[in-house]
Every structure is written in C-alpha cells, then in structure tokens.
Amino acid sequence: MLQSTTVNRQITLASRPEGAPHQDNFKLLDGPLPTIGAGEILLRTVYLSLDPYMRGRMSAVKSYAEPVGLGEVMVGGTVTQVVASNHDGFQPGDWVLSYSGWQDYSVSDGSGLIKLDPESAPLSYALGILGMPGFTAYMGLLDIGQPKAGETVVVAAATGPVGATVAQIAKLKGCRVVGIAGGEDKCQFAVRKLGLDACINHKDEDFSAQLEKSCPRGIDVYFENVGGKVFEAVLPLLNTGARIPVCGLISQYNATSLPVGEDKLPLLMRHILTKRLTVKGFIIFDDYGHRYDEFARDMSQWLASGKIHYREQLIDGLEQAPQSLIGMLEGKNFGKVVIRVGDETPALG
Amino acid sequence: MLQSTTVNRQITLASRPEGAPHQDNFKLLDGPLPTIGAGEILLRTVYLSLDPYMRGRMSAVKSYAEPVGLGEVMVGGTVTQVVASNHDGFQPGDWVLSYSGWQDYSVSDGSGLIKLDPESAPLSYALGILGMPGFTAYMGLLDIGQPKAGETVVVAAATGPVGATVAQIAKLKGCRVVGIAGGEDKCQFAVRKLGLDACINHKDEDFSAQLEKSCPRGIDVYFENVGGKVFEAVLPLLNTGARIPVCGLISQYNATSLPVGEDKLPLLMRHILTKRLTVKGFIIFDDYGHRYDEFARDMSQWLASGKIHYREQLIDGLEQAPQSLIGMLEGKNFGKVVIRVGDETPALG
Question: Is residue A349 part of a domain?
C-alpha cells in the first residue's frame, strides 16, 4: 500500500503477547495527517528499523526502557524526511534520523533529531551499520571485549546487523573469528562474504562439538546476542580472562517462564570465578553516547574502503512490519531488517 | 602437641572428599626433619592460614590452580622462621611469608619468599589483613566494585577476613554498607565493631525481605563471596550499572551436583543485560600482583590509625587444621582462621 498525503497509517500495540508475538497483538489504523504548531516539524517516514529489543517493549515489564502502552504506536528508529516545518533549523526536504515509530507521519519539536546527508551513504544505513546496531557492535567488541590479535572471538547471530559487524571488526583486529548462525546459507555467507574463519549452524545436532573443534585455542571473547543453548556451548570453552559483552538474548525474549531442570546459575558463577571472566551488559547510547564520533569516523572509513560488508533486508510496506518482527524473533531474517515505509522520492497515491 | 626439633609433622590429602570434607580425607604423618642442600633454607612453620579456596585444591578438577595430589602435603600460606640457611639472603631467625603448607618444616630455595618485619605488625597479619585476604578485599572492592560515596555496597560473609575488610573500606569511601553473615553474633559484631550500617543474618527466614528493607536505594556493589541463596536475594535489588566482583562462592564448594528446579542462568543473564551489570571474577595475585605496594601502603596506614578493625581466630596445633577447615566451610569460623603450628619463641619439646 502506497503512502498517502492525507492518511497517516499507524501500527499500534493492540494487546501484549504471551510468548511469541502474533499478528493480533498489532493493529493497523488509518488516521488523519497530524498538524504542526509553532516550532514543530512534520516528518514522513521512509525507513523503519526493526530490532529485537522491540519485543521487550511489547511486555508490561520495564526492562531498560518503559514498555509501549496498549493502543500506543509501536516505537522504532526511523529515517524521515521533513514535509513541513515551523522550525528554523529544519527545511522541507531535509533528511533526519528520528525515533518516529511504526507510522507514516509524525510530529517533532526538533529535539533528538539528527540530520542525515543523503550523499555520504545510503540513507537506510543510519538505522544499521552507521547507526545503533553498528555502534553497538563497535563499542561492545572494542571496549568490553578488548580483542587482541591472535585471540579467538566467537560471535552469536553472526549474520545479523550487530553480529556481522562485530565479526568483521574482530577480523580487522587480527583475531580468529568463529560465527554462530541459524542456517547453512547464513554460515556460508559469514565465511565467504564476511571473511570469518568458521561459522557453525546452531541447528546442527553436533553444534557443540563443531564449535569446540573450531576453537582449538579456546574462546577469549564471546559477543552475546542470543543466550540459551548457544551460551551453554560457549561456556566450557572460555579461556581464563575471557570477556563477554552482553548485548542481547534473543533466544529468551519470547520465553514465558524459566526452563526447568538443572539450575546452571551456580555453574556460570563458578566459571566466572575460576576463569576470571568479565561479563558485562551494556545499552549503547546510555553507556557510550559520548563516543559516537569515534565510531562514525572509523566505520565510515571502513565502509568507504570496502573493509566492512553490510547486508540489508529491505521489506516494502509498513503493513509488513508485524510479520517481519515476528519472523526476526524466530531467526528468519538474513541481515539488517528495514521496512521501506515510503519511497525516498515519493510517487504519492 | 608441641613442635619438635626432630620430627616433621605433615598433613596430607589421604582421599578426595565427595561433598563436605571429613577428617578421613586427611592424614597426619610424622616424618624426619628435611635436610637442606646448597642454596637452600630450612623453614619452621609458626602460622598456617586456612582459606576457603583450599576446598577446591582437594578436588581432582583443576579450578584456577592445580589440585593437591593424593598423598601430598596440603597447601597453604604460612608465616615461617628460618632455622638453617645455605642461602646468602636469609639468616637463621629471619621471618618470612611462604607457601609451605600444612607441615612443621619445609625447605625452600628462597624463591617466592617475602621477608616480614616482626616490629611493624603482628606476624600473623601477613596471612590476613596485610596479606592475601586483605589485598583481595582492597582490589576487588576498589578496582572492580568502584564504589562511590553515597552508593550502597552489600558484602557477603561480612565478618570473614575478606568481607570484613571490604565492608570497612567501603565505609571509609562513604558508602552505605550492608553485611550478610550467618548468625546474630556475627551481625552484631559487624554493626557494632566494624561500623556497618546494617547486617542481615542469612539464616533468618525473612532474610530476603530484611535485605530489601536494608537497601532502600537498591544495591550498587555486591561483593560476592558465597553464592547460592544470598546471591539470589541480591539479584533483584541490583541497580542499573551495578558491579559484582566475584571473589568466592563458599556455599557451592561442597556441592556435588547442580541444584534441580528452575534454571536461573537465563534470569541472571537478563539482569546483566537489562541492568547493564558488570560481573567479574578475579584471582588476586594473578590479576593485581603488580599493585601490592599500593594496597600495603593504604592498609598499613588504616591499621595504624585504627580505621580498620581486624579479627583473628587463632587455633593452636597443626592437628586442628582439618577440623578447622571443615568448620570454616560450614561457616563456623568467626574472623580470620589462623592455625598456630608453633610458638614465635619456641619452647621446643
């Protein structure tokens, strides 16, 4: 469905999921275009980022941010274009990075907006390799992971926007890099296109044995994106002094209760103690916002010189967002998922 | 039994414990005095340190150090006096800190020995407040815990040699300090003698509720010595950005298997992610050996000015070591346990 100049489509949270989200948890509404007051800007959404953290916002429990309220528009990072402006700092036609959420149009007073230069990089990159996921990969790996040349770095979700970036930066730093991904096609991509030393399919029955074989000198850095059985396979392979940046736990997000069986918390603590592990969670802009320029400089250079490969999965249509998020939580995406809500040069309906 | 000039009593590891150690796991042997060759020194043990890590050495599994072999003398830090010397650097009568283990006499080539000045502090302090436990408390709290004035620091095993030191340093840094200990007497000591703001008896049925009430602004630093239910009570109270130095897990050392029930590992990881926790294990001399002087300077000043209180539990007789270690693992000690193997000024038998 084409973007309209008179209708504002919005996807709201209709109900909170129990376990995996369903289409029914979302509601697509048609509303009027918002109007702007003094000092305000009307933004048209072109690209909407889908990210695993959104599952957390759908629950009533506060994690690191407040949940989305029932009936409220789903949140999300967006690349938007200024349509109308009562703000001196923004002109119609300007491109900005905003947090407008799952809707065609939004109103801003300008705070928190970051202007984008459409000449310097594809606009959607601001939601991925040059934005939150890329920054997360960069700081998590370099500041918490502290990889040294010759060390072994294991990256979960190795073809996702964070994992693929972590893996390639680790290669640039001279590490042996072993990826973990869900599928043969993803693993082949990780080795052939991203240049990883090995990539293991966590759906293989002998996944743990393969991982051990691929890490003959143990694991020095494990970049945690997934949790669950992948983490349990990594744990015994960690070397003394290993570092674990904890960036995400996608395998847990849909869980409604703790698994039952052996309680492995004491096992983890024993590994932390006897191997002197560092396990550290982080939220990129809260912890590292002041170092964004450092990242942007390095990453722009790496992209320009072809040292970092970036894969995007562009999906057309705001109405595809719910199913795309549901699929991402099941590992069905391949690369950074971006919803194209409208055209960069709109053929308005 | 008095120390002899002709017999070397040694306590060896007779068998490996399943679960809690028993007297049968140890064997007291009488042997001849060792003789020294060129460049060697004969040392007489006066004080033997007992520490929780010794339980780990009794198991066949390598933790951070090699296990004690069956039939070998139990390891341990000791304050010893030079009896005879073929080494230019050591004279009979010199006091040295050594790692001579559970025996009356030992031979050294001088490597790793640290000379002690009997005038500067009680000799046994080198095994406690001025030695490994004090150094562990100092670096674990200050380097990993990074306490800031006004923050809440929770310390497990708050009257043990490490915990009591952590707690008092945290008070010196202007923190609210809440201890956890196993017994009313220990808790009273922690508040009245050590100056803690509160101390909770983990044997109380409403322990978790008491802890929560004592930490109205949450927990910023949790110094982990014990693991188990204490850690589980702390976990939900941790603030965003909290730090957890992992120094020991005494409640787990005698475990023969993982507990069964809910697997709380995913819960811990979720806390680490959403609260941006830092959880870090450390082994004091491996990680911080190069910063010993800094510690020794600060701690000597604090002791001299009465800012740090130190409680020792001196137990007479090498033959008491097995039962004392067994009791320590059950939390029966009160303060730093030191076995007086011989007199400082020997009345030799």
Answer: no
Cβ B258–A266 below 8 Å, yes or no? yes
Query: In which element (H, E) is residue B271 found?
Result: helix B265-274
Let me know whether A14 and A108 are in one domain: yes
pLDDT band at B65 (very low <50, low <70, confident <90, very high): confident
Give the closest of A265, A275, A287 to B265, CB-based.
A265
Q: Within chain A, which residues score under 50 in pLDDT?
A: 349
* Nearest CB partner across the interface for A264, out of B252, B258, B286: B258
B258 and chain A: CB distance < 8 Å anywhere? yes
* pTM of the entire predicted model: 0.92
**What is the average per-residue pLDDT within B16-29?**
96
Of A25, A102, A9, the closest CA to residue A326 belongs to A25
Statement to judge: residues B34 and B118 lie in one domain: yes
Question: What's the complex ipTM?
Answer: 0.91
The CATH number covering residue A278 comes to: 3.40.50.720
Cβ-based burial of A144 (10 A; exposed 0-12, middle 13-18, buried ≥19): buried
Task: For residue A14, give how far its alpha carbon lies from the nearest alpha carbon of chain B (Å).
Answer: 25
In this complex, do B258 and A277 lie within 8 Å of one another by their Cβ atoms? Answer: no
Residue B177 and residue B33 share a domain: no
| Same-domain status, B322 and B232 | no
Residue B243 belongs to domain spanning: 132-303
Contacts 24+ apart (CB under 8 A), B301-309: B302/B168, B302/B169, B302/B172, B303/B121, B303/B125, B303/B129, B303/B130, B307/B168, B307/B172, B308/B129, B308/B165, B308/B168, B308/B169, B309/B164, B309/B168, B309/B193, B309/B194
A227 in the same domain as A107? no
For chain B, the average pLDDT equals: 95
Rounded alpha-carbon distances, angstroms, from residue B139 to A289, A334, B192, B289, B292: 29, 45, 25, 10, 9
